[in-house]
From TrEMBL:
Name the record gives this protein: Extradiol dioxygenase
Source domain of life: Bacteria
Keyword presence, Transferase: no
One Pfam short name: Glyoxalase
Any one GO molecular-function label of the UniProt entry: dioxygenase activity
Gene3D superfamilies recorded: 2,3-Dihydroxybiphenyl 1,2-Dioxygenase, domain 1 (3.10.180.10)
SUPFAM superfamilies referenced in this protein's UniProt entry, alphabetically: Glyoxalase/Bleomycin resistance protein/Dihydroxybiphenyl dioxygenase
Amino acid sequence: MINGAHLIIYSRDAEADRAFLRDVLGYPHVDAGGGWLIFKLPPAEVAVHPVEGAESHELYLMCDDVEATVSELTARGVEFTQPVTDAGWGLLTRLRLPGGGEVGMYEPRHERATEL
């Protein structure tokens, strides 16, 4: 019945963030019209975490080797806002999008649902 999910990143500079996804991360895309690029993402997972306060949603990119990926993206001009830390469930960092937002990136140590 449900065959996919559509993620939306709200940005203060959508053009810059679209260019980042297209040119820096190299994600294939289609133009839905008027420059509205929609990107093909790698396989995804979703998790639900409990919260006491206001609900929010986050995006984490996953990689096989966080140190190598940080090095490669840094060479492409990507700014990382948090050093790689060991969160137990994975090695975690955060990167800044050109529009000012941030997304997490981690090397999972947990079983991946994308492998199901």
